[in-house]
Amino acid sequence: MTERDEHAGIPELIRGLVQDGRTLLRQELRLARTEVRQALLESSAAIAAGVVAGAIGLVAFLMLSVAAAGALAFFFSLPQWIGYAIVGALLLLAAAGIGGYAVARIRSVRALPETIATIKENLAWR
Predict the structure, then answer these.
(1) Structural domain boundaries of the chain?
(2) Biggest alpha carbon distance in the chain?
(3) 10-75 and 80-108 helices cross at what angle (nearest 10)?
(4) Which among 90, 78, 83, 85 is positioned nearest to 68, based on CA atoms?
(5) Are 12 and 2 in contact (CB under 8 A)?
(6) DSSP state of 112
């Protein structure tokens, strides 16, 4: 906050308040940008490794799913399409469960903790 003349008029005081508000807003935006940039840098290598692992895992999973459907049809003397339908239904149930878990986790994430804390602190002084 800048120093003010104690005999300053109301227009000067209002101008000073507006200027202080702008300065505070700029500082908050700078902090938010810094936090986002830091989080992206910290997680970029992990994200890349996760994408590669996910792609390899997806190919392996598809191959095993086809093998499981064929084995199910063979051992139970069922038509191939029934084996594929059973495996597909099981995978769909698993995907629904994992998707529900993912949505719950995403809702619990709190982004920009320092920025939010300083904004709340600034509003408390208001």
Answers:
(1) 10-125
(2) 96
(3) 160
(4) 83
(5) no
(6) -
